[in-house]
Amino acid sequence: MKTIVLDTSSVISLVTNNLLEIIKPLKEKFKGTFYIPESVEYELIDKPLETKMFKLEAIMVSKAIEDKDFVVYEESIDVGSLLHKINNLYFVNGKPISIVSKAEVEALALAIKLESSAYAVDERTMRLVIEDPMRLKKIQENKLHMKVTINYEFMNEIKNLVKNVKVIRSTELVLMAYEFGLLDKYLINVSREQLLDALLWGLKIRGCSISNEEVESLTDFEL
Q1: CB atoms within 10 A of CB 57
Q2: How far apart are CA 159 and CA 167, in angstroms?
Q3: 130 burial type by CB count under 10 A (0-12 exposed, 13-18 middle, 19+ buried)
């Protein structure tokens, strides 16, 4: 069975841009299942329902789960070892830097467990742990203004664990929807270029970690 696992950050980017509508038709074209772990469900629904700011978005995501656009994975997911390795990957003055929460790691662990076609995450730290841990080390040093050391043993073990994980962002999901014409209804008095620009900048402004240069290169590629 084909699967895509979504992290909290990627779903937030979609719902805050009113783009949850693309999930159902994308899932139908994918002919697979879009999973979220229980911790992501909690962060997207249970936790924000206790607040005022994101209650509407929580209700919208809840409806998407009810409609089976997202399926909550209810079996147990072992995250202990992976969580420990990631949070003991970087050190300052001999002390580890905690950079991710259990909930953040659970989606990655689920993608590994299911051998998913893709793992959707918009948050930069988790993406760089997978794709470029040395760059994340430099970012931590710039942020903390201190020398950061790295546990190379854990770095290599993490690389081995995630070697088959294909990382995507909400941008890739939205670009697929754009290419399939799922968003053509918005082409009213605007060009395709304007729509694409609006989609990418909306995602960037509302949560997706994507650079200005990436927005420009993706726009050029699509057009």
Answers
A1: 20
A2: 13
A3: buried
Residue with tokens 């992501």: 40
Beta strands 149-150 and 90-92 are antiparallel
Round the average pLDDT of the chain to a whole number and report it. 94
Compute the residue count for the chain.
223
Task: Report CA 141 to chain centroid distance, whole Å.
Answer: 24
H or E segment to which residue 82 belongs: helix 80-86
What element of type H or E holds 117? none
The pTM assigned to this predicted structure is 0.93
Residue 210: in which H helix or E strand, if any? none
The answer to whether 35 touches 7, Cβ cutoff 8 Å, is no
In sequence order, what are the residues at sequence separation of 6 or more whose Cβ sits closer than 8 angstroms to the Cβ of residue 164? 112, 115
Domains for the chain: give ranges and CATH numbers: 3-75+100-132+161-168 (3.40.50.1010)
At 50-59, the pLDDT tens digits run 988 899 999 9
Q: Which two tokens stand for residue 41?
A: 């469900």
Residue 4 and residue 117 in contact, taking contact as beta carbons nearer than 8 Å: yes
